Predict the 3D structure of the following.
Amino acid sequence: MANFQSTDPSIATSNSGDPESFAYSTARERWPKILSSAIDEIASTISGHNGLSKEDVEAGRAIQAKLTSLKTSMLGNAVLEPIPRDGRPDTEAYNEEFKTFKDLKWLAAPWLYTECYMYRLIHTYFTLSTPFWHSFDMFATSKRSSLIGSKKGTIELVKRFRAVLQTIAEKQAVDEETQKAIFEEMVQISLWGNATDLALLTSLSVEELNSRQGKAVRDSNKENIVVDDTEQVWSLLSRLRSLGSPRDMHIVLDNAGFELLTDLVLAGYLIESGYAKKIVLHGKRMPWFVSDVNPEDLKYLIEGFADGTIYEDIKSPDKEELQEAGKYWRGLIQSGKMEFRAELFWTTQHPFGRMPVVEPALFEDLADADLVVYKGDLNYRKLTYDGMWPHSTPFSEALGPLAKKHDGQGVRSLVLRTAKADVCVGLKPGQDANFEEGWTRHGKYAMVSYWDAKP
């Protein structure tokens, strides 16, 4: 049974029953808070939506009751049950792997599987309800509020991005040193955009958001990049440019809001600099890990910028900058130079090393690209099996099968991640000897980790 597990590396994984793990506090503290926020969001929708039918109101209250029951079960360390079938094929994958566990309990289970299971289970509460609730995003308000609260960092970043586009268009960045400097800046922007994660930071104030954004913050954080393969990626891009005929690049997204903005900046830069013919953005098809990007999040940002509706109280020149940026990204989509996809695989429980087995078409698509950029903590956990690896473990070893060729095909993987979990690989032996306790958990340290499985 479950042949997709046959190539998993033999490594202990993070478990919510381990008092020394970050999973321990996540399951006992953060998950219940997330459920409480979801319950409140449904209540707010019911009370503020006068057009809801009686049937939809009752259905919404039934979802609230299920979430309340789930929270009670979680805090009581109840045994998990198989996910109900809701007509989507991924429930079978969850339940097939579920059978390989014995008496799986909320507070004593593999963190990666159980956290994905939780969000997929919650989704059935909505898909098995009335049509009004089928596509309801219980995290939409918090995601949009975080973007609105990031006004200062957003305006600064958009102005800088448009200046870079102008520099590229006017061919001012002709020398190698200038080109490399711009590339490094774009990587830094996308990397540190990951520091604002609503799944971890559930109640950020505007001041706290601003403290994690902006050029000054990025510059001060450079010394906290504990794994930095930027030079290798630059060598790759330089080599690809010399060959001509750029192909697709992919970005596997993480958070909506300000981080999505930083990823759109990276996407635009890669296209306009001639490194990528097309950028494929991969997001989620359902509400996922609180702040992960779904199609409506992308639409909200781009159209809100283009229409000038997200920040209505800003100076006219600033609004014009944002509108032009929104129109630019909208134009990339309309021209086919940028595309958003939400494949089923990204909301399964599978570590990415299983991709060649469970989703070979997606693997072939990524292997055909010149580069695949994975953003954020969850993608890093899935790439490395959420394993309790020694920190000096090579990144390629933790990648498992994804570090190798399959049927002659391999993936170039670049991860831009600020650490908010226990797993971390690629350090030099003893590099973290003097780091503070729990240093991998709070988004202070970052990894730019690269592996080329194509050679």
Remarks:
- The two ends are 33 Å apart (CA to CA).
- Confidence is low (pLDDT under 50) at residues 199-213.
- The chain is about 50% helix and 10% strand.
- The longest strand covers residues 412-418.
